[in-house]
Amino acid sequence: MKYWMIVKSGINRKKIRTFMTIFSIATAFLLFSLGRSVAVAFNSEVDFAGKDRLIVVSRLAFTESLPMAHKNRIETVEGVDTVVWRQWFGGTYKERQNFFPKWPVPDNYFDVYPEWELSEGAEEAFSRNITGMIVGKDLADQFGWKIGDRIPIIADIWPKKGGGVWEFDLVGTYTNKTSNEQDEAFINWKYFDEARLYETGRPGNYIVKIKNPEQAESIAKEIDELFKNSLDETKTSTEEAFSRMFAEQIGNIGLIINSVLAASFFTILLLTGNTMSQAVRERTPELGALKAVGFPDRLIMLFVLAESFLLCVAGALIGVLIAYLLFPMFSGVAIGFSGEIEFSISIVISAILVAFITALISGVLPALSAMRLNVVDALRKN
Amino acid sequence: MSFIRQVLLVTNMNLRSILERSGSSLVIIVGIAGSVAVMVSLLAMAEGLSSTISSTGEEDRVIILRDGSSSELSSGVAMTELDTVSSSPGIKSIDGEPMIAGELFAIIDLKKKGAESTSNLPIRGVQPASFKIRPEIEIVEGRNFTTGTAEIIVGKGANNQYEGLEIGDQIKVRDSFATVVGIFSSNGNVHESEIWADLAAAQGLFRRGASASSMILKLNSPDSFDEVGLFVESYPNLELKVQSESDFYENQSSGADLIKVFGQVVGYIMAIGAVFAALNTMYSAVSTRLVEIGTLRALGFKGTTVLLALLIEALLLATIGGLLGGAIAYLLFNGYTVSTLAGGSFSQTAFAFAVTGEIIQQGLTLALFVGFIGGVFPAWNAARRDITEALRSI
Prior knowledge:
Chain A is built from twelve helices and ten strands.
């Protein structure tokens, strides 16, 4: 700590330059945070608690429905625990912007998602009330819904027999214990299936809970084998692989945006590194003087490195802070099918890590040349 | 007159010394080139996507969906409803036949070239009138499908991006096979990312019975739009939404707007970073030249002359950086074709990056802005320095 004065005087030498260097590092890290969160949004790095769930969709396309008879046949596969089903409901709540997934599901659907905590009495009310609806906590908060509210949904894919708006009664909410994915709505299958205009008796896809996650691949294969060459061939994958398929489809674009952001991040760091080494070069005589009065080489190198660390970490923290303040602007902007730009603690951690690496890379060359300074040459430059 | 000459003289002197200071000048150029390249490439992506989607729509064409649906995928119309609508006034007809068609829009999972998993490729069941309504559809290879058979034609974009969609290839749909007999182009719009089949065959393959997803029709003129709207409204049991095709595709391109905003935000953030870098560089460029500047002032050159000359230097470097950045983005991305999930349709649309003149202009404006801010403060600082103080720093 006793050398703090020397490091400080290096930083204070040209205040304007220090200030601007810190801020250009800050903009680099603002871009870095943006890039990280976009990467998360595009790759939907969603942590699925259950590796023990498979999704069975039609092989033709995930939008095609499957017959109800598949359920009993899937249950015969060794290692299958529970089979539930769902259908993409589509529809609109008031305005098109209010997008959230809505799924008609059977009563026991929630057994397959043990990581969800349902509000008290929700499951019982859902099975009793034919127009019942259970929604994620985030959705209820977003629209200010309370239990007992009647939620109107305008139909698109599934018109009601006789036409008109679907209406559901909110009977409960759920929170997700393992992630913040709690923004979907579930409605009672029996009501949906009876009241829809067509395709009655055909679910969209099946969710299969299996006993041993290690068997996922072989069970998936066996299920697809069951229906091979039938009119309704299936494609079974783990829940995780299914959502990765969507990410892959947005694919290229996410990759391009990310590489563009990475390129800009490195460009700014390059510029900053240049500024820092210039700052050290200008100070050659002073460093020479320090050496002349007996400071060891290694200490001189540490002074220069410490300065670079201070600038980088300060810049990184400021950049991440700006990102934190700026991100609410982007919130709710859903990119593609799932995932949105969100700020997370992992961004802060990775930013600080990258700041250290940056400091090392941009500081090490000037630090080495400072260490190797020949006292006589250095002083002669004066 | 002599003032301008003086400015040019000093600028010239500064520029000659640029080579000696090539390192720091390069910092400005690279910083600005980077910001411009980033912004131009993101905007070119947005432009490519949005023009591909919105160029599909025409003012004199109308698309009819089920009321409440915002995309063809979530819509359904009965063929009997099509019969009703076809007697509406305002629809153009040729040889006594109204130009209206029912179309089925579905998706089918196929593998993109080089991909592990499958992607959602749109497939459109069309009627003979569909081709008359859309004259931009042109068979470029092979032939059109024969009505009533399970033959299909493939858009140029889909043919490019997917495996197994060459002429003669077969794709499996449930228990039957459809054969590719032709490749079509459609002026680079979204239909090039689709597979087209005969409506009746598609209804069979996808088990849709006597229903389609949407109706498309051609108007006598864009003004006839209201006639169709009023006609549909006069049937209370028709729950249909009538909209012009251009409005429909304009709405579908909202994803592109998002990329555009994102590109601008990133471009400006990066420009701020480049401003800091430019400021740093110009400040040190000025401080290493304090003696020269002091000497010029002592010789009688005005402070404003020095200021303008330094500013011109910064703007010149900025222009070089801007052009370089635009050129990098152009060479890397212009015409580069990608495909993504677009619109509300959950299906793939292929599009090419488009680096337009307007986008390059935006990039250059950004570059000049960075150059101006990065140059004006150090130049101002240098110009008002006390002459003796400047000379003393020898």
